[in-house]
User: What shape does this take?
Amino acid sequence: MIERVKEFPSLTIIRHPLVQHKLTILRDRQTETKTFKELVDEIAMLMAYEATSELSLEPREVNTPLEKTSGWHISGKKLTLVPILRAGLGMVEGILRLVPSARVGHIGLYRDHSTLQPVDYYFKVPGDTAERDFFLLDPMLATGGSATAAVASLKRAGANRIRFLCLVAAPEGVRFLSRAHPDVQIYCAALDRELNKQGYILPGLGDAGDRLFGTR
Ligand code: PRP
Ligand code: URA
Assistant: This one.
């Protein structure tokens, strides 16, 4: 259910049929805001199932109603979700349903429309950064400028275990992010063809933030 691409060793493409089915509806220009939001939420949850598959476990005893037995507990590293505002917000609730104890930080970045450079305006993550596993969330990895800047901010704050989850990635963005931060595992549901001159992913799904929040 996952695919690897030789050129991008840090990239995992999640090919699960449910993810691919939902992503195709998400891409459809006719899909309305309400459905778009529900689909982003569901795809993020399904992707998180895969992206959490390597979290380490520690043994834990449990008393069933009948006797004591051994089980497992996700080890000390506290999972922290960090959506990149705005569109990353759409991925938070779905993942929290799987990992309700996760903390949530926020990074505010927008892409300047003419230069395509990220402009940052907000940063707040929980303390103990070195003790945490970070899932950085943004549906779109286009030029990679926003994700790369967000990872750099997390690292400056002391984070050293960061995964980046997006729905649609462009090769240009994967290249830029993985060259700058080869230690960051990237998960996506689709690796699309290219960027257009305005920096939109082709075929893509349009402007994720606008479609998610009904702005335009
Ligand atoms: C979009 C998207 C990413 C960024 C990707 O956000 O959600 O954050 O663009 O582009 P990049 O890889 O070229 O940096 P946008 O800047 O439109 O802000 P918004 O979420 O507030 O709409
Ligand atoms: N941001 C988006 O929302 N969509 C794109 O295709 C590229 C950047």
Notes: Residues 140, 142, 199-201, 204, 207-209 surround uracil (ligand 2) (CB under 6 Å). Residues 9 and 178 are 9 Å apart (CA to CA). Residues 33-51 form the longest helix (19 residues).
